[in-house]
Design brief:
By secondary structure, this protein is mainly β. The protein has one helix and 29 strands. The strands form seven sheets. The protein has a five-stranded mixed sheet with strand order 1-18-17-16-15, with no helix packed on it. The protein has a four-stranded antiparallel sheet with strand order 2-29-28-27, with no helix packed on it. Strands 3-4-5-6 form a four-stranded antiparallel sheet, with no helix packed on it. A hairpin with a 4-residue loop joins strand 23 and strand 24. The radius of gyration is 19 Å and the shape is globular.
């Protein structure tokens, strides 16, 4: 197993300061609000959001409601509610229209639901604290980060948990290459990024971070060879070159990142934070990232999903004081 150390602490802080320079003045983001979907009135907590880009459906996990809200977008404002105890992580599989839900029920499970009939098909047990579910689009495998440090490998057709890949500690997020065979995993306790090989089904590299702590959410631009890593201290986003395996840039954020998406086609990066704002960067051909603007959000506790096909951002927010719980839809101007 290889270990790679990046920049020295002094160089890291200097690089952070350079990239923060001139980016503190907020400008209006180009995203435009195009609609609102109402959440159940008593919603005080929102979990992960998932989107069905083919069937124009939206899913929002509602842990305090023991359900997953489902809309036919852009249909009516009243969602259907699928009964699932304490749902957290979501993954929607367009074919054959299945929703994978990581729950806190019975010590930790993944429930597989048929979206068309709205009935459960299978329950996979002994998976505590599922934080993320993702699909290997080149195979029939689902990967789920769970427990104190493992990736569950699940057959997408049968729902059989075939094996688990062990990690040094609890994962915060994972992203998969579509063409390559690598899985990138963030490990906050180890303050590191792990690389898992889907062919050998084992961790093949561990990259320690310096000058920052708490790597969390990830976003991958595979064609552009860029991995984006949100960090807790200092708050910001590391930009990694996935070919040269090194850090190349840092992007400052106002607050901790709660959601992070990259749009390779539009060459844009969008990050929402607990400061109640979203920042948008434009990636240039020279590797630079220019801050395009800042979008004010209705809450500091938002979750979100992004549909790259239509350029639509869905931002869910719980009920707070006199503001009802809802999902705001944003798009890039035509």
């Amino acid at each position: 197993m290889k270990t790679l150390r990046s920049l020295s602490a002094t160089a890291v802080l200097a690089l952070w300061a350079v990239n923060a320079w001139g980016q503190t003045a907020p400008r209006p983001a180009e995203l435009e609000e195009v609609g609102t979907l109402s959440l159940p009135a008593r919603t005080t907590e929102v979990g992960e959001v998932a989107v069905d880009t083919a069937g124009a459906r939206l899913f929002v996990a509602l842990p305090d409601q023991d359900s997953v809200a489902v809309w036919d977008v852009p249909g009516g404002s009243a969602p259907r509610q699928l009964s699932v105890p304490r749902p957290r992580a979501l993954w929607y599989e367009e074919r054959p229209k299945l929703l994978y839900v990581g729950t806190d029920a019975s010590g930790g499970q993944i429930k597989i639901l048929d979206v068309e009939t709205e009935r459960p098909l299978k329950t996979i047990g002994r998976l505590p604290d599922v934080v993320r579910i993702r699909r290997d689009l080149s195979s029939f495998r689902i990967y789920a980060a769970y427990g104190e440090g493992a990736l569950a490998v699940i057959h997408a057709d049968t729902g059989v948990h075939t094996l688990s890949i062990l990690l040094p500690d609890r994962a915060a997020d994972l992203v998969l290459e579509r063409v390559g065979s690598r899985i990138f995993v963030s490990l906050p306790r180890s303050n590191a990024l792990a690389m898992v090989d889907r062919l050998t089904r084992e961790m093949s590299a561990l990259w320690k971070l310096e000058g920052v702590s708490g790597p969390g959410l990830l976003a991958l631009d595979e064609e552009g060879a860029r991995l984006y890593v949100a960090c807790e201290s200092p708050t910001g986003i590391l930009v990694w070159d996935t070919q040269k395996i090194r850090e190349v840039l840092r992007l400052p954020t106002n607050g901790s990142v709660r959601w992070l998406f990259v749009d390779p086609a539009r060459r844009r990066l969008v990050a929402g934070t607990d400061a109640g704002e979203a920042r948008v960067w434009q990636a240039g051909e020279d590797g630079r990232h220019t801050l395009r603007g800042t979008l004010p959000l209705v809450s500091r506790r938002t979750t979100a999903a992004y549909d790259g096909r239509t350029g639509t951002l869905y931002v869910a927010a719980p009920r707070e004081r006199h503001r009802p719980a809802d999902v705001r839809l944003y798009r890039w101007p035509q």
